[in-house]
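[step 3/7] fold_predict: job queued, chain A
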Amino acid sequence: MSERALRVLPWLWPVLLTLLITAPLLAPGYVVGYDMVFVPDLTVRLDLFGVTTAMPRAVPSDVLVAVLDEFTGGQLLNKVVLVAIPLLSGLGLTALWRELRLGGALTGAAAATLYMWNPFVAERLRLGAWALLLGYAALPWLVRSALRLRRGAGWPGFVLASAGCALTASGGITGLLVGGLLLLWRPRVKSLWPLGAAVLLNAPWLMAGLAHTGNATTDPDSVTSFAARNEGYGGVLPTLLTLGGIWNADVVPGNRGDLLPIIFAFVMLVVSVIGVVLRWRQDPVAGALVVAAVITLLLGLAGVVASGAFAQVVAHVPGAGLFRDGQRYLGPLALLESIGFGVALAVALEHVRLYRVVGLTAMLLPIAALPALSGGGGLKVAQYPADWEQAQQAVAGRFVPWPFESYRAPSWNGRRPLLDPMPRYFVQPSVVPDELIVGGHRLAGEDPSAREVATAIRSAVRDKTDPTPALLRQGVGWLVVDREAGGPTPPSLMPGLTEEFSGPTVTVYRLAGTPAPRPHALWRTIVVLAAWAAAAMTLIAALVSVVRRCYSSVHLTGRGHSSWEH
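[step 4/7] structure written:
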C-alpha cells in the first residue's frame, strides 16, 4: 500500500464501511422497526414540543424530523439518518485521532472501525434508536472540540457537537457528562460558558420533563425488564465491556454468542485496555474519558447489581426512569475502547516487521467479530399501505389508534415489530399508548390521559361497558383501526360509531357525541416554548459564528492571505 493511499485511507474507510452497512437500506421505501418510525410527512404540531400530558420521550427529535421532512420528505430523511449514523461516527473518530496524534493511518482506521462496528451500534440500530445513535456519532466531535477549547480554540464546534448529542434525553446526558468532565478536568478553559450553552441546548427535553414531574415516576418493574443481559460472555459485566447487553434479546445479532465472535471480542477488549493504560500515562486528560466510561458502565450494571434499590428510586424520584435502560449510555465506553484499541495497535506496529499486514488485520477484526451488521443488521425496507393516505384525510380531530397498544408487527413491514406509526403518520393529534409489554409483563405508562383511555377500553372488552364517554372526556372523537392487528372491532363494543372510511388495512370511525376541549396548560406551554427558544437561539448563534468564520477565511484567501497569518 502506497504512502498516498495510507493518507487517504482514514477518510475513505468510514465511507466504505457506511456503504457496507447501509447499501441495501437505500432502496426505495422506509426503513422502520421498533422505535425508528419515519413517515412521509410528520406534521409540525404543538404536542411534538412536549406540552401535552404525555412524557416527552421524543423531544426534541420529533420536532427536528417534522421540520426537516418539509424539505426532504420523510423517505429521504430516513435514508440520510441511516447513512449519517455510521459515517459521522467514523469520520468523527478519524478527526479525533488526528487531533490527538496517537498514531498513523492504519491505527486510526482500526480505531474508527471499532467505533463504527460494534454490538452497541448493531443492537441500538436494530432497536431503532436513531436519535441516540446520532448522539453517539457526535461524541468524537464533542471530545475533539472540548480538547480544542482547552487550548483556547473557538466555541462553535463544541456547541454544535453538543446539539447532536441533545437529540434525546439520554444522549444529552451523555454529552453533558463527557463535555463537562473534559472541560472541568484540571481546568485550563478561561470561560466555561460553552458548557452553559450545552445545557441550554438540552433545555427542550429538560424543561418538558420538569413540567411533568407530577407524573414522571416510573413503574418499578421496568428496572428488571430493561436491565442489561448476559449474551453468553460469562456475565453481564463482560457483556457490557464488549459493548453488548441490550435488554431486548430479539435485536441481538445472531452470531453474537458464537465461539469466534467471543474470542475476537475479548481480544479487542484486552488490546483496548492495554491502550487505555498506555494513553492514561501519557495524557492526564485521558482520565476524564476513563471516568465518563466508568460512570456509564456503572449505569449499565445498576439494574442488575442493585435492582431492588434502583426500582424504589425510579418509583419515587421523578425522571429517574431515564436511567432504567442503563446500557444505552455505553457510548463513552465504546469511544474509550476504540481509542485504546488504536493506541495499543500503534505501539505494537512499532515492533513488528509486517506492520501493514497486522494493521489491516486489526482493521477487519471488529467486522469479523460482528458480520451480522453488514447489510443493516436485520433492518429491511418497507412501504406504508396505500389506503393510509386516504384514511388520514378522513380524520378531522383527536383520535385513538386501535388496538390501543404501543407496538405491532404489521405484514407490510414483514411482521417486524414496530412502534405504532399512526400517531406520526396522521396529521391530527392522538392519544398515544405508553404502556409497554416486555417479556409478557405489562409495564404501566406515565400519561394520565393514555391511562384513562386504556382503562376504558380494557373495561369495555372485559365487562362490555361503553368506553365512549371516557374517550370523549379525553377529547377523542375518532378511532383509527389497524385491521390486521387483531382484537375486537370497535362496533362490537361501542354503539353509535359512524364509519367514515374503510380500506384494506385501516378503518376510520367517528364517535357519537362531542369531544371535550383539551386545552394545553398555559404555564406548561410557556415554560416549554421558552426552553425551545433558548435552545434555538444558542444553536443559531453557533451556526452564525461558523458561517462568519468561513466567510472571513474565504475572504482572506481571496485577497491572497492565509488566515493563519492573522
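[step 5/7] annotate
The beta strands are 399-402, 407-408, 418-419, 436-438, 441-443, 478-482, 498-502, 506-510.
The two ends are 39 Å apart (CA to CA).
exit 0
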